[in-house]
Amino acid sequence: AMEKSYVSLFLLLIVVSCALAKDAGKKDSKDTTAKPKLPQTLSRGWGDQLIWTQTYEEALFRSKHSQKPLMIIHHLEDCPHSQALKKVFAEHKDIQKLAEKFILLNLVYETTDKNLAPDGQYVPRVLFIDPSLTVRADITGRYSNRLYAYEPSDISLLYSNMQKALKLLKTEL
């Protein structure tokens, strides 16, 4: 019985390494094309040309190591408020340009980190986290009952909050 489990473990390792090799191979071939079209899955329509992280953990890691602030957008596909904000966010040229200076993450599910829901789990909500991994409670929207909510009409406030997040970085770190 002992030998059998070794064999199956060995086969499992082979399968795993094949899967990894296959992924690595795919990446290389994609990089040779002139302008790779990023898969739109991670952007979920918030900015298809921007680089989005896949998980909260990855976003924190990249923020810390790049010393860029992190912007997290919580939203839901079937929420009309989320959809409306996404539309103006994606079409706002200045925001899309400024967003390149951030580590970006949009989530359609809640994380277990309570710091990301300081005043509740409503959507859409946008939080900024600095590279010391502190949620910036001082960068909020205009609603006292939902501090991190933005309506489409608040898009210029969101833009200035993005600028504020970048400015804080220069003065504090």
UniProtKB/TrEMBL annotation:
Which keywords has UniProt assigned to this entry?
A: Endoplasmic reticulum, Secreted, Signal
On whether Calcium is a keyword of this UniProt record, the answer is no
At the top level, the lineage of the source is Eukaryota
Query: What does UniProt give as the signal peptide span?
Result: 1-21
Q: Which GO terms describe its molecular function?
A: dystroglycan binding
Q: Which InterPro entries match?
A: AGR/TXD (IPR051099), Thioredoxin-like_sf (IPR036249)
Q: Where is the protein localized?
A: Endoplasmic reticulum; Secreted
According to its record, what are the GO cellular component terms?
A: endoplasmic reticulum; extracellular region
Major place of residence: endoplasmic reticulum
Residues annotated as transmembrane: none
Homology family:
Belongs to the AGR family.
Q: What is this protein's name?
A: AGR2 protein
Q: Organism source for this protein?
A: Leiothrix lutea
